[in-house]
Design goal:
Elements: H1 14-35, H2 39-66, H3 72-94, H4 100-149
Helix pairs in contact: 1-2, 1-4, 2-3, 3-4
The structure holds fe (ii) ion (2 copies).
One fe (ii) ion is lined by residues 60, 75, 79, 114, 118-119.
Protein name: Bacteriohemerythrin
Domain Hemerythrin-like: 13-122
Organism: Pseudomaricurvus hydrocarbonicus
């Protein structure tokens, strides 16, 4: 069964939500490759999934670090452990083993759980930081405009 994106997977930060949505698409791609009985297709999708997930993790980590999220270190550790786990599956798949069922099960449960708990946990801190940054920019451009046109 493919993983359906739904509003209960949204954390309310659009840039993150769209990245998570893309990861869900890749996970569904893994399953599709399996249905097509194509090991070649599977390896390609797996590569894309790992690449995209890594860049998402990097983006998310810099976002929470910048916002001063107190559990950044722990969050990074969870990302690193998951990455290692997926790379393990990737290696087994490359060696010709059929890991799809185990892999998609792991991917789905991990991602849903991580988004709903770990990622959702940083939302408040990151949103506050984003609002502050927007205010600062507005204040700056405000004073610049008033100097110019005032
Ligand atoms: Fe995360
Ligand atoms: Fe995330």
């Amino acid at each position: 069964m493919s993983l359906q994106w739904s509003s209960d997977l949204e954390i309310g930060i659009p840039v993150i939500d769209s990245q998570h949505q893309r990861i869900v698409e890749y996970i569904n791609g893994v399953e599709l490759a399996h249905q097509h009985h194509s090991q070649k297709e599977l390896l390609v999708v797996l590569d894309e999934l790992v690449d995209y997930t890594l860049s998402h993790f990097e983006f998310e980590e810099s976002l929470i670090e910048e916002a001063g999220y107190p559990f950044t270190k722990a969050h990074k550790k969870v990302h690193a452990l998951f990455t290692r786990r997926v790379q393990g599956y990737q290696q087994r798949a490359k060696a010709g083993e059929d890991v799809t069922e185990e892999l998609t099960h792991t991917l789905k449960t991990w991602l849903v759980n991580h988004i709903k708990h770990d990622d959702r946990d940083y939302t408040g801190v990151v949103k506050d930081n984003m609002n502050e940054a927007t205010k600062r920019v507005k204040a700056k451009s405000g004073s610049w405009m008033s100097r110019l046109f005032g």
